[in-house]
Each structure stands twice: as C-alpha cells, then as structure tokens.
Specification:
The protein starts with a strand and ends with a helix. It has 347 residues and is of the alpha/beta class. The protein has a domain of 239 residues: NAD(P)-binding Rossmann-like Domain (Rossmann fold, 3-Layer(aba) Sandwich), CATH 3.40.50. The model has no long low-confidence stretch (mean pLDDT 94).
C-alpha cells in the first residue's frame, strides 16, 4: 500500500513516520512536505534510507503540484498532517494559514477524489481541539461539540474539517478525522510553549507567560497521538470523528513550574533561580481559557488510551531537548534551512 503523509518533516508527522515506517515494511510511505521553517529533515535521519520511505518536496497550496504528485504516486491512503499551526503567527499573518490549511486541504481532497476507486482507500484528516473554541471551568469537548473557533488558525482548521466531511457526504470519499489536544515531545519547533520554556530556562532567558498563566490545556504526548491515529485508521468507523486527549489538564503556569523543576534537577541548579526568569506578558487576543477533551469514544470503539502521564512525558521531553543540543542549535540558527536549500533546491 502507498501511504502519502503530508507534513511528514514537521513535529507530529516526523514522530509518526519514525514510529510507523520501521513497524510497517509492507507499506510504502511517501512524505510530501513543503519543508517550511518548522520542517526539519534531521528529524527523519533514522528512516531516510529505508526502502519503504521517500521524500517528495511539495507545496499542498500548489494545485498542479499536488495533482502531479497523486498521478505519480497513486496513494491508497492519505494521512494529512500538513498545516500552519502556530496561533500567534496566525494572528499577525493569517494569509498563509488560509492558503495551507484550507486551500491545501481542498487540493488534496480533489486529487484524491480523482484517483480510480480501489480497496483500502482512506483520507485521514488530522485536526485540533481548538476548533471547538473555549471551555469554562467545567465540561469537555466531545465529537458533537459545536465549532466555535477563536483565532485565524483554529478557523482555518475548522474550515478544513468541514471540507473533509463534505467530501465524504457529497462524493462518498472514504474519510476519517481526529481532533487532538495540545501535543508535546521530541522535535517540536521551539516557538511552542514547552520547548521554548525548556530552552529559555537553560539559557537564562525570560520565560514569557501570557496573562497570569491561568489558561488550561490538555497535554498529549506525541507518541500517544501517533499511536491513536494509527488505531483509528485500523479500527475507526468510516466517516467518523474521534477526539484524542491525554487526560492531562494543566494550567500554563503549572507547566512552566514543572519544567523549571525538571531542568533544575537535570542541570543541578536551584529551582528558585529558574522561577525568577518567569515574566508575565500581555495576553494575546482571543486567548481561549480552557481546552479539555473527552476521549471516551476512541477508547470505547478503538481500544486506545494514552500510555504517558504528563509527569512521565514531560520528563522524557525535557531530557530530549537537553540531550540534543546540536538539533536545537541547527533549528535556532537556521543552519538546517541552508542544508535543505542546498540539497533540495528546485525539488
């Protein structure tokens, strides 16, 4: 089976490929990635030379390029990770989010619809809990929760979700969807909360926290997310939506305190010194108060549950960033971008 994975050099996509390519030699995995600032081929060094893996540099915002890719590769399955995903960037420059998350998804759906019908076909769309908007102090997001996105990012993902469902209902396209809570773990670009806090703590830089740090997120270790996606692919109902949550609600300020404690422990420095680096900054516009997912459906229908608690997952994550200084240096300096352009220019 040919499995096309979009955005496979990004954070979640690369973790997914690193898990699944060695595990499933019977499938051929095609990584279609534009290789933007948040993509890094170093993430995939361990599988780059495997016979059942190949990279195709493709911008899903380019309809002609997507059609050409599908005509050449004839994928049986599409697993769609590719997205612009940073909320702050979407507030300051929303256009790329519309182009990638909405138009890009449309191009993929059209190209997949044009393929000859066959056994085992599936378009799996990976989305976010941010499409549901904000919760109060109680309640959980369920698959039937009404959409109420707050940012250009979440609105663009909500639109892509609706497109995928519409193609299933209108054209009979075989689809499944998953909406996940906040991911963390290895290879996450340092603009996101957890890697930013880890690296700034080590380097003696400010630890910027929006507002009073009262915003609550449900944290999901990336490997648990990847396993859940594959479980839905294998066991989920066609046309179904499954919410994937880590059962780990934490206030942002508590996450920062935990990171300070673990960094202090790993580096042998007083935690109190790291806590002094916390800097409360003006809250961002439309900042949702609380996200929390009810994963009962995926647990009941597919038999999945997260393996990592927040305590075990965050310790693994801190140790990974502290133990991979070369990766961090390349990402922050942009050196990996120069390597990509040298080796993949024009591809």
């Amino acid at each position: 089976m040919n499995i096309l994975v979009t955005g496979g050099a990004g954070f979640i996509g690369s973790n997914f490929l690193n898990l699944m390519v060695p595990r499933h030699p019977e499938h051929h995995f095609i990584n279609a990635d534009k290789l933007t600032y948040a993509a890094n081929l170093e993430n995939l060094a361990g599988i780059a030379k495997r016979d059942n893996y190949q990279l195709e540099r493709v911008d899903i915002g380019d309809a002609a390029a997507v059609r050409d890719l599908f005509e050449r590769m004839r994928p049986n399955m599409v697993i769609h990770f590719a997205a612009e995903s940073h909320v702050d960037r979407s507030i300051h420059a929303p256009e790329s989010f519309i182009q990638t998350n909405i138009n890009g998804t449309f191009h993929l759906l059209e190209a997949f619809r044009a393929l000859p019908k066959g056994e085992g076909q599936l378009f799996h769309h990976v989305s976010t809990d941010e499409v549901y908007g904000s919760l109060g102090a109680t309640g959980l997001f369920r698959e039937d929760t009404a959409y109420d996105p707050s940012s250009p990012y979440s609105a663009s993902k909500a639109a892509s979700d609706h497109l995928v469902r519409a193609y299933h209902r209108t054209y009979g396209l075989p689809v499944k969807l998953t909406n996940c809570s906040n991911n963390y773990g290895p290879y996450q670009f340092p603009e996101k909360l957890i890697p930013l806090m880890i690296l700034n703590a080590v380097e003696g830089k400010p630890l910027p926290v929006y507002g009073k740090g009262e915003n609550i997120r449900d944290w999901l270790y990336v490997d648990d997310h990847c396993e859940a996606i594959w479980t839905v692919i294998e066991r989920g109902k066609m046309g179904g939506t499954y919410n994937i949550g880590g059962l780990n609600e934490r206030k942002n300020i508590d996450v920062v305190h935990t990171i300070c404690e673990l960094v202090a422990e790993e580096k042998g420095v007083p935690k109190a010194e790291l806590l002094k680096q916390i800097k409360y900054v003006e809250d961002r516009p439309g900042h949702d108060l609380r996200y929390a997912i009810d994963p009962a459906k995926i647990m009941r229908e597919c038999g999945w549950k997260p393996k990592e608690s927040f305590e075990t997952g965050i310790r693994k994550t801190v140790r990974w960033y502290l133990g991979n200084e070369a990766w961090v240096k390349d990402v922050r300096s942009g050196a990996y971008r120069d390597w990509i352009e040298k080796n993949y220019a024009g591809r």
